[in-house]
Design goal:
By secondary structure, the chain is an alpha/beta fold. 42% of the residues lie in helices and 12% in strands. Bound molecules: guanosine-5',3'-tetraphosphate. The site of guanosine-5',3'-tetraphosphate has 18 residues, from helix 5.
């Protein structure tokens, strides 16, 4: 399967990011907690050089709790403040506030020494499409002020959302482009539903998912679909089809339907909390 992110989109996103980056002190980077490696672009390290940095492991409600902890230590060890998050929930925002204060402590101290008082920290949210940037901005700002969806070119002048007396947030998030160098990146993005399934081979995706689930989560397959452990992926799909009554007219298992069902159950969290990448 081929996964794409058009070069034109990438150039545009990068240019915009470089422009916006000049305006801020702090970069709040959202990654998907189920695939923290594939859902980030390492170029952000270069783009966000000399800025305070926070990584938010978003959609942590869908990811494996133990893996969330592992990833948080990983990012903390690499010098970023990291917080796990369900961006839809207001209550998750307090630890983010704390992390912002921590991350910006040095800058505030520098300002104070130079006699600059009360200059708020300026922050921007960045991340690949669909990672939850707009949802986060809405929840964090406490009102529906961020534009939902990515519509490049909508905002001409920069809008800042004043969060409190210390922090201002750029209202348009920065769009990072995925980095497809490693073949697993496109696959993992497709598995979490970040790409248009119509362009993908659903059966192949589902069988790749099953292979990954065999590496530690096969109990969830048994629990939800009553399938036996450890068979070929096609066999497992067949069992899912039969047990879930995904059948064609003559009563034959409809593997494609079973594949879509499995993917949907995984993406929505119905299959359980699953992380596909380890630190
Ligand atoms: P973006 O700006 O980065 O492109 O992402 P956006 O906020 O539009 O979020 C993409 C989808 O992810 C939305 O779902 C949103 O509700 C969901 N989402 C965001 N954060 C979280 C989270 O922490 N946990 C979970 N489980 N979901 C999250 P959607 O189906 O596209 O829209 P909707 O049906 O929720 O409106």
């Amino acid at each position: 399967m081929q996964y794409q992110w058009y070069p034109g989109h990438m150039t545009k996103a990068k240019r915009q990011m470089q422009e916006d980056m000049k305006l801020v002190d702090l970069v709040i980077e959202l990654v998907d907690a189920r695939i923290p490696r594939s859902s980030r672009n390492p170029d952000i390290n270069e783009l966000g050089k000399n800025k305070a940095r926070i990584v938010l492991l978003n959609k942590a409600d869908l990811a494996d709790e133990e893996m969330n902890r592992e990833w948080i230590s990983y990012f903390s060890d690499s010098g970023c403040f990291a917080v796990k998050l369900d961006a839809r929930s207001r209550s998750g925002m307090r630890p983010v506030q704390t992390a912002i204060q921590e991350a910006c402590k040095e800058k505030m101290e520098r300002d104070r020494k130079r006699g600059i008082l009360n200059r708020p920290v300026r922050a921007m949210v960045v991340g690949i499409p669909n990672v939850g940037k707009s949802t986060f901005i809405n929840s964090f700002a406490g009102r529906a002020c961020a534009k939902t969806g990515n519509r490049p070119g909508v905002t001409k002048g920069k809008q800042w959302i004043r969060l409190n007396k210390n922090v201002e947030l750029l209202d348009t998030p920065g769009i990072l482009w995925p980095k497809f160098e490693d073949p697993s990146v496109g696959l993992h993005l497709a598995l979490i539903g970040s790409m248009n399934d119509q362009l993908l081979d659903v059966m192949e995706l589902a069988s790749e998912l099953i292979k990954r689930l065999y590496g530690g989560y096969e109990g969830l397959l048994t629990e939800r679909y009553g399938v036996e452990r450890g068979g070929e992926t096609a066999e497992t799909l067949g069992q899912i089809a039969v047990n879930r009554r995904c059948l064609k007219k003559g009563g034959e298992p409809d593997l494609e339907k079973a594949a879509s069902l499995l993917l949907e159950d995984f993406r929505s969290g119905r299959l359980g909390r699953i992380t596909l990448e380890m630190p």
